């Protein structure tokens, strides 16, 4: 598998892959960090250009997962490496807690240790559930959503694409969170949130309108 990125969140993904015994032919991709050499942790090769990535997909392993946290960058990396011939693949920690009934996890999701997914939950492609985050029953999580450490999404909520749910925040039941929303750390969301909003506080209030996405 190829992990896109070789710093920060990519190291979190590495730990998930190690626990799953998926390290055969594992490599990283980083073409922008001058302080990242050709080998990471004296073990894993780091590819440096699209030609190397395309060759890796053709001759070694066509799977890739995204080791970058930002939802917008994750979408861009998905488009780029899919066009090079890669197949987006999830990394799901053996130390996560996932319900046994009616759970659907989209391709390319990164589910980290200690995260909990209840029954009747749908998670879109390329989404992150960080350490100790919780998604309870009957929730729908969109594509390329980042749910930060300790965040809790309570029953029957819908979170749309490209949202960032801050650390230790709580989204109360039966709420709809629009596309491209940032929920600040520690925020308690008590009402629906429209697209392109920054929400902070207890209770959460919209403090800024964000620029609409244009993909």
UniProtKB/TrEMBL annotation:
Residues 2-80 form the PglD N-terminal domain. This is Sugar O-acyltransferase, sialic acid O-acetyltransferase NeuD family. It comes from the Bacteria. Keywords: Acyltransferase, Amino-acid biosynthesis, Diaminopimelate biosynthesis, Lysine biosynthesis, Repeat, Transferase. The active site is at residue 137. CDD domains: LbH_AT_putative (cd03360). NCBIfam families: NeuD_NnaD. GO terms for biological process: diaminopimelate biosynthetic process; lysine biosynthetic process. Pfam families: Hexapep, PglD_N. The record marks 138 as: Increases basicity of active site His. One of its GO terms (molecular function) is acyltransferase activity. InterPro entries: AcTrfase_PglD-like, Hexapep, Hexapep_transf_CS, PglD_N, Trans_hexapeptide_repeat, Trimer_LpxA-like_sf. It comes from Flavobacterium phragmitis. Substrate binds at residue 69. Signal peptide: none annotated. Belongs to the transferase hexapeptide repeat family.
């Amino acid at each position: 598998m190829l992990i896109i990125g070789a710093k920060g969140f990519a190291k979190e993904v590495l730990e998930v892959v190690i626990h799953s015994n998926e390290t055969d032919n594992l490599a990283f991709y980083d073409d922008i960090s001058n302080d990242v050499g050709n080998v990471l942790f004296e073990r894993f090769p780091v590819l440096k250009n699209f030609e190397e990535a395309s060759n890796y997909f053709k001759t070694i392993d066509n799977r890739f997962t995204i080791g970058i946290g930002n939802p917008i960058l994750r979408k861009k990396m998905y488009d780029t490496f899919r066009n090079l011939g890669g197949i987006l693949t999830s990394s799901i920690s053996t130390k996560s807690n996932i319900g046994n009934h009616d759970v659907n996890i989209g391709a390319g999701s990164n589910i980290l240790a200690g995260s909990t997914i209840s029954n009747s939950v749908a998670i879109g492609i390329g989404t992150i559930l960080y350490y100790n985050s919780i998604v309870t029953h009957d929730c729908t999580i969109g594509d390329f959503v980042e749910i930060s450490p300790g965040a809790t999404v309570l029953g029957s909520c819908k979170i749309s694409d490209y949202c960032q749910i801050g650390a230790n925040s709580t989204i109360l039941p039966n709420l709809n969170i629009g596309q491209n929303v940032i929920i600040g750390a520690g925020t308690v969301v008590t009402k629906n949130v429209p697209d392109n909003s920054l929400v902070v506080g207890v209770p959460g209030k919209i403090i800024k309108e964000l620029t609409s996405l244009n993909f």
